[in-house]
Amino acid sequence: MKFSPLLDQLINDLQILPGVGPKSAQRIAFHILERKRDDAVSLAHSLEEAMTKIGHCQQCNTLTELDICAICANPKRQVERILCVVEGPADVAAIEQTNQFSGQYFVLMGHLSPLDGIGPDEIGLDKLAELLASGDYEELILATNPTVEGEATAYYIAEIAQEYGVKASRIAHGVPVGGELEYVDGATLSHSLLGRQLIN
Amino acid sequence: MKFSPLLDQLINDLQILPGVGPKSAQRIAFHILERKRDDAVSLAHSLEEAMTKIGHCQQCNTLTELDICAICANPKRQVERILCVVEGPADVAAIEQTNQFSGQYFVLMGHLSPLDGIGPDEIGLDKLAELLASGDYEELILATNPTVEGEATAYYIAEIAQEYGVKASRIAHGVPVGGELEYVDGATLSHSLLGRQLIN
Ligand SMILES: [Zn+2]
Ligand SMILES: [Zn+2]
């Protein structure tokens, strides 16, 4: 025991947060105990509620506590007949902020990574194939990250789109190669959406 | 709304953590939702329990859920008749790790900072005076941080000690000037404890 049992437990549990080791967990614990008790109780409640209630949208697979997320449930988003495939929910948020896209999304929650055991089923490509088979979409925009894995995943999905006779496009390389989509500024991202290129 | 209501709430609440802005709150939320759900529920529980149950030791003022902390409650620690004054609980832990001190502590939970409205009462010097008046201590080791505020606080407390006829010493400047005690390595800290100098 370094401090009291409860304090040691808190410091230990805080280390599940990415980038937080023993020393910073200690700093965080003291900081909130000294200055943010009420806020930290609110955080405890939203943490527990989020962890137990947030699942995946039944249509686009993004993280949400709803059965169908707000974007998928919006009938105006279906009119475009375009599905934009991204790696994660943060990418949806980044693209939404450009105001350049009014279609729907499909969220892979990752990318193909055979060495880590992440194959097509793990990123929901079976579900994506069903959506393509529905005939509801004319175009698939592949907006995976401009990394090696993101490119490989995009080309893999482009082949599936071809099978279903759906046109596939890749967002333009206005986005910096090797970067991550969610950190790209809005102007660059807008440009890359407008300049998208047909793949097949 | 950027994501779903619960997810937005979680990302908002995570920003009470020191150094966590909107982007890193988002990263943390996705990370734990994707990989650490059970651990995050445990964190939620220990957060709530810590925030509601942890208070201050009635004797030394450190953070603890007990009325009297384990160190103050240990009769062996009273034999030395030495009280070591530190700025925070992390400093207690750092000094304990040196195994060079077997007396008791008094934790200021800060330092004098008149411009921020932190005067003697805010750092418990009234309580410290009571301890000195008890006649239980022969020496007061001033182990506040080797910063301008820490030095000023040490000298202020040395004067109180003098009033009560208790010898006051300052840990030696083996610790780097301008640094913070909790990040000093054990050897340096041991050296600074052994080389402490009388003030009055
Ligand atoms: Zn959805
Ligand atoms: Zn105590």
UniProtKB/TrEMBL annotation, chains A, B:
All copies of domain Toprim, residue ranges: 81-176
What the entry lists under Pfam families is as follows: RecR_C, RecR_HhH, RecR_ZnF, Toprim_4
Q: Where are the zinc fingers (C4-type)?
A: 57-72
Which keywords, in A-to-Z order, does the entry hold? DNA damage, DNA recombination, DNA repair, Metal-binding, Zinc, Zinc-finger
InterPro entries xrefs: DNA_Rcmb_RecR, Rcmb_RecR, Rcmb_RecR_Znf, TOPRIM_dom, TOPRIM_RecR
The entry lists its GO molecular-function terms as: DNA binding; zinc ion binding
For this chain's UniProt record, which GO biological process terms are given? DNA recombination; DNA repair
**Similarity field:** Belongs to the RecR family.
Task of the protein: May play a role in DNA repair. It seems to be involved in an RecBC-independent recombinational process of DNA repair. It may act with RecF and RecO.
What's the protein name?
A: Recombination protein RecR
What is the organism field in this record? Moritella yayanosii
